[in-house]
Design goal:
With 168 residues, the protein is an alpha+beta fold. Helices cover 39% and strands 28% of the residues. It is built from 6 helices and 7 strands; from the N terminus they run H-E-H-E-E-H-E-E-H-H-E-E-H. The protein is globular. One of its GO terms (biological process) is phosphorelay signal transduction system. It catalyses: ATP + protein L-histidine = ADP + protein N-phospho-L-histidine.
């Protein structure tokens, strides 16, 4: 509640991780078919990220990748690191996966899966807030799982956060 009640749209990766930890406890109580692993590089813990940016990807892994508890032995990993002056965040799972090319061609419609809407919305938010070359890039293969790869600007408390506000 403390994190969600703050007005800022950005918070530290450490805070996002804490939100995910609480979310995962609730989902594991419901479905009991997966484990969550965190590999957050220490030099990324205090970098800023948009609130709830990662939760919907974890939710997709649980709901769609592990079929709401019907697929056992699920594993989700959150990994964050810096590379070439950018923040990289990967969320990967060993769920059922999907055909990326078919998914990207799917038209938006009333019967569309939640996954399609959520990921496309996240992509649009990143594009609008940060522009190129940042984004959310998906890799998936049926039967082999999915990896959501975020490439985001490195934003630190103070100056970088203020710079982001100027872009809006």
């Amino acid at each position: 509640m403390q994190i969600t009640n703050k007005k800022d749209s950005l918070h530290r990766i450490a805070d996002e991780k804490k939100l995910l930890e609480h979310y995962v406890v609730i989902q594991k109580t419901r479905f009991m078919n997966f484990d969550m692993h965190y590999n957050v590089e220490p030099d990324t813990e205090n970098l800023l990220i948009r609130k709830f940016l990662l939760q919907s990807i974890v939710e997709n892994a649980i709901i769609h990748g592990f079929s709401r508890g019907k697929v056992n032995g699920g594993r989700i990993e959150l990994k964050s690191y810096r590379k070439e002056g950018r923040l990289h965040v990967d969320i990967s799972d060993n769920g059922k996966g999907f055909d990326i090319s078919e998914w990207e061609q799917r038209e938006e419609s009333a019967d569309m899966q939640h996954t399609n809407v959520g990921i496309k919305n996240i992509r649009q938010i990143i594009k609008l807030e940060y522009g190129e070359p940042f984004g959310l890039f998906m890799e998936s293969e049926p039967g082999k799982g999915t990896c959501a790869h975020f490439i985001l600007p490195v934003m630190e408390m103070g100056a970088a956060a203020d710079d982001t506000d100027d872009n809006n």
